[in-house]
Structure formats: C-alpha cells, structure tokens
Amino acid sequence: MAENQVALITGGGSGIGAAVARQLLDAGYRVAVTGRGKERLDAFAQELGRPEGLLTVPGDTAVYDDVRAAVGATLGKFGRLDAVVANAGFATHDTVAEGDPAGWPDMVLTNVLGPALLIRASIDALKETRGRIVLVGSVAGFVPSPGNIYGATKWAVTGLAENTRRQVTEWGVGVTLIAPGRTETPFWDTYGSLPPGHLLTAGQIADSVVWAMRQPAGVDVNTVVVRPVGQPV
C-alpha cells in the first residue's frame, strides 16, 4: 500500500522534485528530499507544514558520501526504500563552441554522475523491496541541438537509464526515464527568461513520474517523453 512506501528524491526542494514530493505525500508515501540548499529545503518543509512523513537531507548529489548519507538517513527514519527519483540537474545554457567551460564540470557531475551515484547507493535497498528507479532526463536527450552541452548530459542520462534497466531488471527493480519538454521551473532562472510558447508545469511532469512509480508489481514502464502541445522538437 502507498502508506508504507518510501521514496527518495534528489533536487526535491523546488521545481519538478518538489512537485513529485507533494504528490507522493498526498498519496500516502513517506518522502525524503535532498538538495544543496538547506534553506530551500527548510522553506519547502515549512510550506508543507513539516509533515511527519517528510525528511529533508542537505547534500550534493554529485558527492558519493552525501548520497550514501541521504540513503542511510532515509532508511534510518523510515526503515525501507521503495523508489528513488534522480531529479537534480541544471543547465549552463551555453554551447560547446562559444560557452564558458568553467561551468561545465559542475553541470556534468550533477546531471550525469549524480544519477549514477544515486543508483549505486540505493540499489541494495531497492533489491529488498523490488522497487523502482526514476531518472528525470529531457527531450534534449533525444533531439540534437546545435552545440548544446546540457543536451549531451541528458543523452548520457538516456543511455544510463537503459543500461541500468538491463542490469537491475533481473533483481526485480524497475527503471523509468521521464524526459520532459519545455517546463516552467527554476531551470530557466539562469537563462534569463522563459522560452516562447506553451510550457508544461512541474505538476504535470510530476503526474508522469508518480504514474510510472505506481504501476502494478511486475510492470516496468521504461521511457516517457512528455512535451507541451506546440513544441515541435
């Protein structure tokens, strides 16, 4: 039953991660969220009224000790782990031929290494519950875009999802890649403006994440690409 389920979400204090956390809490899950900003996590918990079923764990998703600590804290408080959502990520919004390389290492480590570390840190617990792994990728991980470094990191996440599935499926663990199109989240804060046209909301992407997580036992939905109507690529 959902009231016994436990999920850990990286980058869970805002945007898609926070929307997923809200929906899971409403469905009776117990939820742990991580993020680099303790103040943001505290504000999120305060906004929700600090429910008993919510655990906030500050940490860097690209640092293995932090990720292991988040998994350990989740198991310590809730006693089990049924799902992880690798949501943390960001873009430098520049290109390989004209961008500033100073920002690339942090982006690559967060977007690519982070999900891999979460899988490694959580897999033993997920084997026990025959749980689920959800990776939040991007349409940019399917459609090439001129010079897009961020897109290259999301192509890596697309590959990581399928490579992971091929290993962990024999242990009864499901893997889903959710690939959003243009979505109104803090992702665009460093871009300077929202892109033109209709955008999805974080809640609409969360709908897909939670739907995939709540599939019946034995059902493994692997790839979900979600674009707003009107986004041509």
In short:
This protein is α/β, with parallel strands linked by helices and 233 residues long.
Keywords:
233 residues, alpha/beta, globular, two-stranded parallel ribbon, seven-stranded parallel β-sheet, 41% helix, single chain
SSE order, one letter for each helix or strand: EHEHEHEHEHEEEHE
Widest beta sheet: strand line-up: 3-2-1-4-5-6-9
Extract low-pLDDT stretches.
Answer: none
How far do the termini sit from each other?
Answer: 39 Å
Any overview of this molecule?
There is one protein chain. The chain is α/β, with parallel strands linked by helices and 233 residues long. The protein has a single domain, classed as Rossmann fold, CATH 3.40.50. Helices cover 41% and strands 17% of the residues. The strands form two sheets. Strands 3-2-1-4-5-6-9 form a seven-stranded parallel beta sheet, sandwiched between helices. Helix 5 (149-168) links the parallel strand 5 and strand 6. Helix 3 runs parallel beside helix 4 (104-129). The chain is globular, with a radius of gyration of 17 Å. The model has no long low-confidence stretch (mean pLDDT 94).
Draw up the topology in text:
Layout: E1 6-9, H1 15-26, E2 30-35, H2 38-47, E3 54-58, H3 64-78, E4 83-86, H4 104-129, E5 132-136, H5 149-168, E6 174-180, E7 183-184, E8 200-201, H6 202-213, E9 223-226
Parallel strand pairs: 1-2, 1-4, 2-3, 4-5, 5-6, 6-9, 7-8
Helix pairs in contact: 1-6, 3-4, 4-5
